[in-house]
Amino acid sequence: MSTIIYPSPIFGPVISRRLGVSLGVNLMPGDGKVCSFDCIYCECGFNSDFRPKAKRPTRQEVREALTAVLKQRHNDGEALNVITFAGNGEPTGHPDFAAIIDDVVEARDKYFPDANIAVLSNATNIDRDEVRNALMKVDDNIQKLDTISPIYIKKVDRPVSPSYDVDKVVANLKKFDGHVIIQTMFMKGTYNGETVDNTGAEYVQPWLEAVKDIKPQKVMIYTIDRETPAHGLKKAEPATLDSIKDLVEQSGIPCSASY
């Protein structure tokens, strides 16, 4: 099983399929994974396989490390398209997430005012006002919604909290009033002898209706790109993603597909 555990608090930059030259901000420990989901396709592996011993980076550590990298890249004339909160788990789970967003906005404005700030989130904490308010300050508020089927979510995304309710998540996504990008993983294959194909109409049509209800600024659909901790998963074909992309665009919402 091949997995990627990212350094903390800053890593990269990396070349993102969806975002360009991206400098990563990892608010989780650098030696393991802490996430409110335990997705079977996660490039960082299963939660149980990578229990961290280190602590999360502090707000000060994040601020100092990011400022140093941005200053160096600015002085050396190195390109940067986006500062992306990602890494070894759900970034909004950090207790100082809102304050860290303020720090990153300040540093970005000083050194790379044309760069975007992006947050990759699984939407499990957007019921909290302070998290939602902080996400309104970033350029690319990217929230996961793989399906609206509770059965599929339990099988594939595997929320840690038993109280996870996708209907409530959709309701909270609507509270962004369009300042949100929906990100969805489409794939095929099997896991534990059961299909995990969410590319058929029985999944896509209800998901599309939820997306239209949320009214995001954009939708990003993608498929498996790296080795996954679960075996038996398969990429969705480009033609399949293109057909889903067309459905989204027909509803008047911009959509990108990453193969």
Q: In total, how many beta strands?
A: 11
- Unreliable stretches (pLDDT < 50, length at least 5) are none
Structural class determined from secondary elements: alpha/beta
**Shape field:** globular
Q: How would you write the strand order of the largest sheet?
A: 1-2-3-4-5-6-9-11
Rg, rounded, reads 18 Å
Name the helicity range.
25-40%
Number of helices: 7
Strand content: 15-25%
Mean of residue pLDDT values: 96
Order of helices and strands: EEHEHEHEHHEEEHEEHE
Distance between the termini: 22 Å
How are the secondary structure elements laid out?
Layout: E1 10-16, E2 20-26, H1 59-76, E3 82-86, H2 97-111, E4 116-121, H3 129-135, E5 140-144, H4 150-157, H5 166-174, E6 181-185, E7 187-191, E8 194-195, H6 201-214, E9 218-222, E10 233-235, H7 238-250, E11 255-258
Parallel strand pairs: 2-3, 3-4, 4-5, 5-6, 6-9, 9-11
Antiparallel strand pairs: 1-2, 7-8, 7-10
Helix pairs in contact: 1-2, 2-3
Structure description:
Helix content is 32%, strand content 21%. The protein is of the alpha/beta class and 259 residues long. The relative contact order is 0.14. β7 (187-191) and β8 (194-195) form a beta hairpin. The mean pLDDT is 96. The longest helix is centred in the first third of the chain and has 18 residues, at 59-76. The chain is globular and about 50 Å long. It is built from seven helices and eleven strands.
